[in-house]
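Backbones bend. We report:
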Amino acid sequence: MSGFSAGANAFLKSDSLVGLEGPNPATERGKVVVITHHPKEPRIIYPSGRFIVVRNLENPSDTFVYRGHTATTTVAKFSPNGFWVASGDITGKVRN
C-alpha cells in the first residue's frame, strides 16, 4: 500500500507474518468502535488496543498493523483521496 510508509517499524509486516490477519477490533461495553472504509479500495481501518489495523476485504491476509501509538487508540480515518491515514488515542495524540 503506497502512502502508508510512516518510517521504520511503523507497520507490522514481514514474511513470517503472512497469513496472519491482524487483531480484531477491541471492544468494551458502552464504547463505540469506529470502523471506516477506504474511499477507493476494498479496505477497512479500525483501532484495536494500541494498534491501527488496515485490512483488505478481498484478501484478509493483506493486513497492515500500525503500532506507533503508546496509548489505547480510539479512531482511525482515511483521507478523502485514500492516500493518508490519521489516527488518535486516549491521550489526545494524533498521528498521520
Observations:
- Strands lie at 36-37, 43-48, 51-56, 63-66, 73-78, 85-89, 94-95.
- The radius of gyration is 13 Å.
- Residues 15-95 form one domain.
